[in-house]
Amino acid sequence: MDPEQFKIFMKEMRSWITELKGEKKAVEVSGSLVHISPFENFDPNKEKFSCYIERFGNYCNMKNLKDDSKKAQLLLGSIGSTHYNALTAYLGPDKPITQLDYASLTTSFDQMLTPKRSVIVSQHYFLSIIQKESQSIAEFVAALQRDIADCDFKVECTTSTCKAAKTVISVNEIFLRAQFIRGLRDNWIREQLLQSTEHTFDKILSKAVALEAARIESAELSKRTPNPGSSDICRITQPRRNSRHDSNNNNKPHNNRQRSSPRFENNRSRSVESRNRSRNRIDYRALGIQDLCTRCARNNHKVADCRVDYDKAHCTSCNRKGHVSRVCITTLSKNLKSNRSGSTNSVTHVEDEHAYGISRLDTEIIDLFEVFPDTDKYIVTVLINGKPQRMEVDSGARFSLLSEEDFNKLNLNLPIQPSETIFRSYSGNMIRPRGKVVVKVAYKDKETHSDLFIVPTGHAALLGRQWIRDLGIELKEIDHAPSFMSKTPTINVVVTPDDIVAEFPSVFSEKIGCVPNFEVKLQLRQGAKPSFTRERHLPYALRTRVEEELDSLEAAGIISPVTTSDWCSPLVVIPKADGGVRLCVDYKAGVNERLISASFPIRKIEDVLHSLRGSRYFFKIDLFKAYLHLKVCPNSALIQTIGTHRGMYTMNRLSFGIKTAPAEFNRIISQVLHGLPKCEAYFDDIICHGATSEECAKNLRACLKRLSEYDLHVNRNKCSFFEKKIEYLGHIIEHNQIRKSPDKIRAVDEMRRPTDADGV
């Protein structure tokens, strides 16, 4: 190869290498987009969409992804199938989701997943927040800070300079400070803050956190440091009144009783006089309601601060107003008196129709230095997943409990499942467990798989009735003594319909609300002309009741009088069995045929029933005058104008009889209840369900909270509370069994069999 040919060869080689480098760089750039892994799915139960989209933006920046079209594609691939399909249905077929840019896509998701509440609803919700049983002060403040952002607490400045500039001043800190002190669960901390001279929220918060920490540390120190005066010999014990033991005890000398000093006798006489003076007072501690509100039976406030109306609280035990059955003093006093009239060492169970029984032990004042040998506890050792654990046999407890400290010592490596069950001891204290685990427990030659509830450290390990039966434990085998006394109070589960009604009083009030951020618009066919039909003749006997109903609707803002209108449909009055009237409107003559049908898909009844599989507890909710909760636009209000004997009224809410009303209501209620677990809606019939009563109660609270946020109200008389067998959508549902309701097929069953060909 001569020098000239070598130069040409090297030039070609350099150009070929340059092309290879360019192709490799392009491949690397394109590959950096292809190999970006999807972001995590959005979970509304963990975070708000605004927080999710902020973290998604940080993820894109970390991956150096700047192209908005690529970011939109990555968001659609990361959001999850449920929200992807929901947004597709929300936007409709005319607006494909894949053609939206990144900004429009995030805006659409935000409008669908986080519908903005009105300022009034946000302020009302903020002023209703109180510290929960399991919340620390820091968690309580975080909840207040999160919800006050939407409240818009502002006032206009009144100085001349500010008036000219129309300056608005935020007063969020004032409301935050007031609601923080008002909502504290610990009355002692609240009293300390009210006595303080601090005024800024930060200083008040710092003091509250310090007081809470001091109280927790003091409680821990008291647990670790034994009290020298708390030994078994100084404990008040239960005397035996059994005839056999009375005879035995009478034969034994009681030297300690004979050494009573005059000072001890004086103390005893003073205690008797004090007991006689307080005989006519109500002993709330003996009734077990000393920490409860005597109106709604909740433990986070007193009756003076109760928000439940006096007339709304109804007792099913004494049939009186002003309180619920759990705090009925008349019934509890009778039960306590009947218990004391019997054997003092017997365990009795007081039950009403909604609460589980509470084990009660009567006590009396005895010599502090007297010791009874027959009051020992029944202790057994069981194998929990093959590891031994000492537990106290307590036939008064329904479930088995284990403290968190003892559970950690077993080192079982089992995930603790969340539980909404709340226990209440005989002393009235509420105990919220950390959760529950499913364990294999064995005793002698028997074993079973069952739930074990994990409670905070400090509570004794209890073996409840469920394990006693499953393991066949006999108390005589443990100790020949016929009875025992436990220092640990027995516990029962509190789940009653009265609690649910008291927790959501506004939802169960039969009134017509207005769903915020939604407005129904009726679409007319092209070229449709207004239709005017005069009012129909109304019998004079019904006019007074009709006018009262019209005045009520006008006062609520549901209808408005109008002097002239191109649209008018006649009012139809239907007498009710209770003497009232039902107002209907006949829209079929002129309005319905001019409307465009709404194209929202309605779920099949079979699909709704299929979603109930696996559940055993059901709560059916009937919305009170459901359609009237939806506001319509001004033009639609004119289209719905009704004609009465005393003039015309525009209908400001969605009216019964409009042919598109069912589809419009179903579209909105689907968005309102979107994301709630085990909550199904078929038009205005809502059902919450769960495999256990605890799961059903948890799902029900989430549903009622959502209804409260959207100002929806229910008809309590038509609701079904925690039923195992329920009729829904014309079917009887009972633990994976679905069959037709007999009332719906009675006509077919009673039809006469055909006897000839014509009859067939």
From TrEMBL:
<dbReference type="InterPro" id="IPR036875">
    <property type="entry name" value="Znf_CCHC_sf"/>
</dbReference>
<dbReference type="GO" id="GO:0008270">
    <property type="term" value="F:zinc ion binding"/>
</dbReference>
<dbReference type="InterPro" id="IPR001878">
    <property type="entry name" value="Znf_CCHC"/>
</dbReference>
<feature type="compositionally biased region" description="Basic and acidic residues">
    <location>
        <begin position="265"/>
        <end position="278"/>
    </location>
</feature>
<dbReference type="InterPro" id="IPR000477">
    <property type="entry name" value="RT_dom"/>
</dbReference>
<dbReference type="GO" id="GO:0071897">
    <property type="term" value="P:DNA biosynthetic process"/>
</dbReference>
<dbReference type="InterPro" id="IPR050951">
    <property type="entry name" value="Retrovirus_Pol_polyprotein"/>
</dbReference>
<dbReference type="Pfam" id="PF00078">
    <property type="entry name" value="RVT_1"/>
</dbReference>
<dbReference type="GO" id="GO:0003676">
    <property type="term" value="F:nucleic acid binding"/>
</dbReference>
<dbReference type="InterPro" id="IPR021109">
    <property type="entry name" value="Peptidase_aspartic_dom_sf"/>
</dbReference>
<protein>
    <submittedName>
        <fullName>Uncharacterized protein K02A2.6</fullName>
    </submittedName>
</protein>
<feature type="domain" description="Reverse transcriptase">
    <location>
        <begin position="555"/>
        <end position="733"/>
    </location>
</feature>
<dbReference type="InterPro" id="IPR043128">
    <property type="entry name" value="Rev_trsase/Diguanyl_cyclase"/>
</dbReference>
<dbReference type="Pfam" id="PF13975">
    <property type="entry name" value="gag-asp_proteas"/>
</dbReference>
<feature type="region of interest" description="Disordered">
    <location>
        <begin position="221"/>
        <end position="278"/>
    </location>
</feature>
<dbReference type="InterPro" id="IPR043502">
    <property type="entry name" value="DNA/RNA_pol_sf"/>
</dbReference>
